[in-house]
Every structure is written in C-alpha cells, then in structure tokens.
Amino acid sequence: MNLSQLRFTSLLLTATMTSQLEPTDDHCSSSNGSDTSSSYYTTSRSGDMTHSSEDSYTDDGSSQSIDQHEVLRNEIDHCRYAQIDLVKFVQTVWGLDRSTCERILNLPLSLDASKIGDYKTNHKERLRRGIFAAFTESLLQDVQEHLQVPPKERVHGLWYAKRRPSRTRDSQTEPVLMGLWDPFPSKGRVPDWSVARHIIEMAPQVQPAVPLDEDQAKSSLSHQQTAPATTLLPLVSRASHDQGSDNSRSTQKRSRDASDDGSERDRKRRRLDEEYTDSHLQLASYAQDCLASTCRLWVTGLVIDGCKVSLTYFDRQLVATTSPFLFDKEPSKLALVLYAMGQCDRTKAGFDPHLRAWPSHTIEPITESMKRQLERPVESVIGSFIEFPAGTNDIPALPSSQPTLPSCFRVSGWILKPGALISRTTMIYKIQMLLEDKSLSRDDYALKLSWPPKSRTSEIDVLKELKKKLPTRLHAHLPDLQFATTFTAEDLCLPSLKLGLATLAPGPENHEPRVLRVLAMKYYHKLWTAGSIEGFKQTWLDCVECHHEAWKAGGILHQDLSENNLMVSRLGGKVSGLLNDWDLAVFVNTPEGKSTIHYRTGTPPFMAIELLDPLKFITYKPGHWYRHDLESFFYILVWAALHYNLKEGTRDKAVHPTLLPWISRDARRNALAKLTFGVPGDTVANWAFDSVKAEFEPLLKEWILPLRKLLRVARCSFEKAVGEYVPTDVYDYPTCGGILTFETFMATIGCPVRNWADGDLP
C-alpha cells in the first residue's frame, strides 16, 4: 500500500466512524448458507432508506456493536405503546385470573423498612441486586402463604448474578437478573437467554455528589470563574449520562412539536418519549437476545428504576409497557407481579410450542422425565425438534406420503440468527427431516422462520408462481421447498391482540401487523464456496438468467440481490447457481406490485445508486426497476473479486478499505462512493482493481471493467435526460434510453443468452 492509499484509508475510517445507523423499518438480510458467518451489512426496505441490524458490522469492517441503544430506539420508536393497566397486563400476558389479582392487591402486605432503606442507599449494583432479590423472595413467600399455596407447589423469586459482569455495560449480553424456573442454576453458572422466563433491568443508581477538596475547588474556580466555591463533583455513571442526553434531545423535540401542533396525540407521544429511558432500551436489548436465542414468540420483562417498576411486553411487531408504580408505596402490586411471574407457564412466557425436546410421534417409550421436559423451554435449540401439526404444510404432499403425520425437523445447527428486535428478523436453522419411518434424513435442509408484514406478498406464493410460469429447466435454479406455512398473530394467540392497544398512545396505526412464515428447503451453499472461478462464473450467470426469466416470463422482480442470495447448488456433483430469498419480490404487473415497487428495497452494499439517493425535481415517477437489479449484479462481482478465496471456500472477514463506504449507514455516502467508483481514473476504483484476488484477475478484464463502462454510459445518458427534463414519452428512464437492458448487459460480458424454453442445457 502506497502513501496516498494510507492517507485515503485514514480519512475513510475517520469519516466512516462518524456515520450513524438510520432508523430500522423492515426486512433484514437473510441467507441459506453453509455457515453462520456474520453479515457485513443489513437489508433495507423503506420509503426513506432505513436499515435493520442483522449481524451488524462497524464501518471499519470489524464485528462490533454500534451504539445499540440508539439503534433500538430508532427501531422501536414507531411501534411502542405505553400506560397499559397493570392488572390487564398480568391477566392477558401471564394468564392470572382477575379474582386472584384482586385478592393479592387487597392483601395486607408490607416490606421490611430496613431492607428498603439498605436498597435505596446502596449504590453498588451487585449488592443492590442481592438486596432486591432477598426482599422480593420474602414478599413472594408471604403472598403464597396468604393464598395457602401448598409448600411443595410454591415458587421462588428471582435469580441474580452474585459476581460482577465480565463485560462493560454497553456490550453486556450476560443476564444479571431474571426470572427462571426452579431449580435455579448451580453457584457460578450463568443461565442462557434461551431459558429466561422473564428479563429484568435494574437501572444504575446515580451516586451522591462528592464535595471537592480545597485544591480541587481552587483548580475548578481557575477554569470556571462563575462557579460557586461549594462546587460539587457528581459521580455519574455512563448510563446516567446517556439518559441525560436523551432527555435533552427530548426537550428539543418537545419545543419543535409544540410549534407544529398541540394535539393530544403529540402530547401523548412526548410523554411516551420521556418515559422510555435508557434502562428500557437496555431491557429491549435483552429481549432481542432472548428472541434470537431460541424459537420464541414474545418475551416480557421489568424495568426497576429505584423503587419505580414498569412491565414491558416484546414481540416481533410491537413493544407495550405498563404504567409504572412505586413498590415502596404499593408493595401489593409488586407481590402481584412476582406471583404472576412465578405462575406463568412455558407457553404464557412466550416460548414457541412448536419447539420440543423430542418429537410427538417418537418410537421411544415416553417417560416421566420426558414429560417434564415439555413443561420447560429447551436449553439448546440444537438437538431439539421443531414440529408443526399435520395439515399445515402448504406444499402438496407426494401421493406416497402420510399427510396425517406432523411435519417434524431436528435442528443440527444455526445458519443465521436475527440481529434486530422489530422487523422481518429472519432466523435460519440447519435441519434434518424426520421421515415417516421415524428415521432422520441423510440430506441436510434449511428451515427459515421470518416475520414479514402481513400485507406483503408471500414468498411461498412467489415461488409457486415462478414454478408455474418458468420453463422446467429453470426450476433447478429456484429454491426447492419441502414445507411452507404461515401463522397469523391470531393463530399464535399473541397477547398483544388483547391488550387494548387501539385506545393507547399514539394510535392504532402505530405498528404494522406481521405473520410468522416458515419455509423448509434443500440446503444450499454460499457463493464463495463455488470452488473455482469457473464455478463462480457459472453460478453468477445462472442467477442472472434466472432473475431475468422471472421478471420477463413470471412478471416478478426480486429486488434484494446480494451475495447471500446467490447460492451454489451441487446437484449431481455439478456446480450451478440458485437464486434464493424471494421474500421482498413483487409482482410487477399487479396493483400491489406497482405500489410496492416504489419502495427502495435491497441490501445497501449492492443497492443501485438511484435507490440509495433518489434524484429530486424529476419528470418521471421513480421506482425499483429491472436495471437496478442488474446494477446489483455488478456490485456483487466487484465485492466477490475483493473478498472471496474460492479455492479455500472462504470470504475475508474484513471489508476491503475501498468498499467501506458501501456498508456505510449513510445512504448518500454509499451512493456517492459508487458514483465516483465508475469515473475513469478514480483513485479508489484503481486501488480496488489493483487489489483484486488473483483468481478474479481474468474476470476483471472480461466482465468487471466492461460492465463498469456500460453502467457509466447509462448513468451519463440518464443524468442528461434528467437535467434536460426530457419527458417519459421521449426517453425511457427504466432502461436509460435502451442502454442498460438484459441484452446489452449480457452482450457486454460476451455471454450468449440461453433459450431455456427450447431446452438448451443450463
């Protein structure tokens, strides 16, 4: 690397580290690959270019967390509800009957005044957790005594970590306080998020101000002449500082909102923002970890801020929080919460009933121990079974099969864990199918679970339509579905349906209803495992042609091309391409498709320039066009040439410095970097081309450079038409005046177009 490159890298990293992750809306990137390696980037679908954090990387290419609280705040801001009645929450979510709730609230309960005093005055988190756990255990036993619960049936309170967490608070992922099932873990063992019954966040206490000594006071006065001689130095934790910053931002927002309109809705929204503290965001991060660690539909938790307690419910479409109460003033409310948490069973805690320790139609004798396993969540998804009732498979069964049997899969590994809380949150497992003879399949499969918007076209319907309309030879380049089903919120009995959210701030339109979509398909491999440059080229070409036929003959546009969606299939030992993940695809000729196509959809490193930073003052209606996906295919080529080690079947862990702007959370910066990348003589582009992997050097001359020129010519033509306000009946904006089409794209790389309908060999 020469001196100019070093200077460029320094400037690039400095600029990149200042960018901020934009608000989360929907559609995380998903893959069906052969490993669990993290993704560098996220997928977007929004009218204002938003992201969701699916295994996010920082812009320097390293796998680190990036201001997770701010990401979560943006992600859940549009789907929060507050001021839910405590009793309604306990009844609806945890299943405690109303008469028991009222009975507990009327009990003559009290807390030990000395213990409450110790709790209020102790500022060491570990000790405060212990004090809180002790007096809540005593309170829980008191209420069970009043309710005459038999001793053998009584439950215990909260588990807490008796040691200091090993990580800093901002990157803390180990639980320190939670609700569990009896018996608690042995001393020194920290439970996993996958078995958390309830999650708890105890807000850090701000330590009292410490008076400055005489020398410190003089030093302070020399720097601040207006400060009084009795200046105090507060010892404030970072969490408290962050909370203060949030409050100042909230104040700024209040002044802006007040000038806009003083409606009741705005006042409710401002109050909601004020109530949602940094501790609530920390609890949300725990919820994200819980939901990502296992098959779970929802999770509930508590925020304890001094003596103030609020309960929160999280699922994949919304967050709902109760009105807070003070437990030192109303101990019966704390008793109600503790008792309801202890009585909450596996299902009411939100664990997916489809996840089991053993299959329902096992050939083994069912023991008491096996029965008890079904009462608790499984400790590890790997080795467990995911089972769906007979009749739920939307894929037609073979005549020889028994459709009366459940569809059952044994999880053998992770492929993808979701990195967001409210979004599509795709989760993919490596599985084996349980066959009719109760044996496991030799072949591996992938089970994909995601939460797309209910209004969105089903990936199942897209694939069915493609199989119906495309030539048979192309079917090998589409996912081979073995199982598919969809569950609505009503099917899953999500408690949020009965919380009365329509009457709460800020209104019934506050969240987008989602469905749980489940797909099982054959197991495919990552693009970088093609094995050779010939295998890579064949895979890429197969996907380009399959994509075109889907658009031309099937009337379906993919809209989310990335390195994770171009897969390697090895049927019969032959490498071929498979175009995967059609869950953001649209039917272009339907009213819904014509509406949806105006969203900017895709995975940022591979998104077209126009989608990242649309032009203004234009004479045409912008949309996601076919040529934008062609542009994505080009970016995948460049990305692969700089990161793939085909012989080893690996991908470089760090992003090449020249492409760091492509993973920026600043959409405009991403677009500008790609725009200059196409300019002849661009220093960054030349450095990138000098850094191409040896295996890809022939591809640089044959495909990458010619396609770069084609895209540049098309862009110049497009900008000229835009600048001159050429009307749409004179200039074809979707093809840049006919310059960028499938035919010109293929001709540029010197590849003949195969006639799939005539039976040419793929």
Automatic annotation (TrEMBL):
Residues 1-21 form the signal peptide. Residues 254-273 have a biased composition (Basic and acidic residues). Keywords: Signal. Residues 267-469, 512-640 form the Fungal-type protein kinase domain. Residues 22-65, 207-273 are annotated as: Disordered. Residues 218-229 have a biased composition (Polar residues). InterPro entries: Kinase-like_dom_sf, Pkinase_fungal. Residues 29-47 have a biased composition (Low complexity). Pfam families: Pkinase_fungal. This is Fungal-type protein kinase domain-containing protein. It comes from Ephemerocybe angulata.
